[in-house]
Amino acid sequence: MRYRNLRAVLVASSALVASSVLAVGCGGSSGTASKDGASAGSEGSAVPSAPASAPSMSSTPSIVGAASSTTAGTSSAPVAFVADVWADNWFSLTVNGVAVGEDSVPITTEKSFNAETIRFTATYPLTIAMVTKDYRADDSGLEYIGTSRQQMGDGGFIAQIREQSSGRLVAATGKAWRGLVVQRAPLDKSCEKAAKPIVTCRWEAVPEPPGWQLPGFDDAAWTAATVYTAAQVGTKDGYDTIRWGAGASLIWTADLEADNTILWRATAPRPA
Ligand SMILES: [Ca+2]
Ligand SMILES: [Ca+2]
Asked: Which residues of 56-66 are buried (b: 16+ CB within 10 A; e: fewer)?
């Protein structure tokens, strides 16, 4: 349902994307294209994903990927996968154009740190598309607004995908992942302690490019991920409950604080 709405929005906004127009805000809260809860977590058109309020994504029924499948045993036979994700603060996961899961704790939750395990079925090669969001109370990009803790929150996330039967790690966050920032705030970090950050702070937003989650999308212009240590990200609740593969790294863009909503793409070929 939301997917169809999103597609309509994307079609309508394609002209903006083509000309790389940025929506830049200053004061007021309208005019951004990526408000929390409005643009992310798109759902597949064929099979709905579990609701965001589900207690655990591990109970999500398997969803067959969008890529065509044929008789089992051929190179395009469906394979069962297990994805582990820990995000500061929220994520959604799409594989081969099908939404397979998202963080069960809504982005509207101020302190949200939890790991998720998502099971799905798809065919190689995997086109992995994720939305990650650092929490912000409003478009100013700040959190704990009006309290002594008012600040720029920071992001960071880690993800890995294993074949369910073999346990092989076939995809994991690292330098090869490419990101596109669609909400950045505040643009001037000196507004961090402003009395009215929504008035003082400036931000910018860009629409999600049409089809960015699909295999054929060209992400050559996107930015390579920056790898961070657990200390830099400040990993916490849930992070230590997952056994992360040696190849899985915490990533974000170059700015952990101001880059709040980011689209990510990665591909995983069938392992040799
Ligand atoms: Ca955060
Ligand atoms: Ca932030």
From this structure: ebeebeebbbb
pLDDT by residue (tens digit) across 97-130? 999 999 988 888 777 788 999 999 999 999 999 9
Q: Which ligand is nearest to the CA of 255?
A: 2
Which ligand has the nearest atom to the CA of 87? 1
Q: Which residues of 123-149 are buried (b: 16+ CB within 10 A; e: fewer)?
A: bbbbbbbbbbbbbbbbbbbbbebeeee
Q: State in Å: Cα 234 to ligand 2 middle.
A: 13
Question: Cα(122) to centroid of ligand 1, in Å?
Answer: 31
Ligand 1 centroid distance, CA of 253 (Å): 14
Strand partners of residue 25: 203
For residue 251, how far is its CA from the centre of ligand 1 (angstroms)? Answer: 13
Separation of 219 CA from ligand 1 center, angstroms? 26
140-191: pLDDT as tens digits:
999 999 999 999 999 999 999 999 999 999 999 999 999 999 999 999 999 9
Chain centroid, CA 33 distance in Å: 16
- Give mean pLDDT, residues 226-244: 96
Q: Where are the domains of the chain?
A: 2-268
Structure tokens at 235: 């990993």
C-alpha angle 141-143-147 in degrees, rounded to nearest 5: 135
